[in-house]
Design a protein that fits this description.
Elements: E1 2-6, E2 12-21, E3 28-35
Antiparallel strand pairs: 1-2, 2-3
Length: 44
């Protein structure tokens, strides 16, 4: 999943999160988070 985190200092960071759901389980687990370094396409 892609998203954005905002810090208390007003700076924000685009992030990419990784989640895992094991076969046969209904539980989804958070695995890791990376800075999202892909370019943003402006549609304006």
């Amino acid at each position: 999943m892609k998203g954005q985190l905002a810090g208390l200092n007003g700076c924000s960071l685009r992030v990419l999160t990784v989640w895992q759901q094991d076969t046969g389980s209904e539980i989804v687990r958070f695995v890791t988070l990376y800075p999202d370094k892909t370019e943003v396409n402006n549609l304006e």
